[in-house]
Amino acid sequence: MIQKYLIVFLVSMVPLIELRGAIPIAAGMGLTDTVQHMVMTFVIAIVGNMLPVPIIYLFARKVLEWGKDKPIIGGFFTFCLEKGEKGGRKLQEKAGKGLFVALALFVGIPLPGTGAWTGTLAASILDMEFKETVVAAMVGVLLAGVIMMTVSLAGVGAFGLVAGG
């Protein structure tokens, strides 16, 4: 059981996959079969998804700017910077003064290219305050967790009905 929770934790920290992939994986491993397992999965996925946020905010932009002109890694680092800048511009255009809410929704709505990693990088590029960024990311990760848990439970339940389980 601990190994399964460890997988959920580690997958939650992976960029682009994050909690959005970890919760369905947990459901597939049977970690949503009881309320206790569901709550534990939810908490572990949230912690795993949030753990990189302060590190991303404080260091990712600096590391990406340092590496953007280096051989081998330069292309990927440039891609990451451009993605963060593009996300930041979109957030700023849509949000105006409501940047906190926009960031929370950007992180929370589970669509490709959104999430805590991209949202936090965008916030650092926009020079949002650290505390505001972390709280907005937390609100977004909680929202994404609720959405993904609901979708995963509905999907697993529907699959069980179709499969005769």
Percent range for helical residues?
over 70%
Instruction: Identify the overall geometry.
Output: globular
Number of domains: 1
Ends distance: 22 Å
State the helix count. 8
Gyration radius (Cα, Å) is: 17 Å
Class of secondary structure makeup: mainly alpha
Task: List unreliable stretches of 5+ residues.
Answer: 157-165
Major β-sheet profile:
none
Please report the total strand number as a whole number: 0
Task: State which percent range the strand residues make up.
Answer: under 5%
Name the average pLDDT: 88
What is the N-to-C order of secondary-structure elements (H for helix, E for strand)?
HHHHHHHH
Describe the structure in your own words.
The structure is a single chain. With 165 residues, the chain is mainly α. The chain has one domain (2-163). The chain is built from eight helices and no strands. Helix 1 (2-13) runs antiparallel to helix 2. The chain is globular, with a radius of gyration of 17 Å. The model is unreliable at 157-165 (pLDDT under 50).
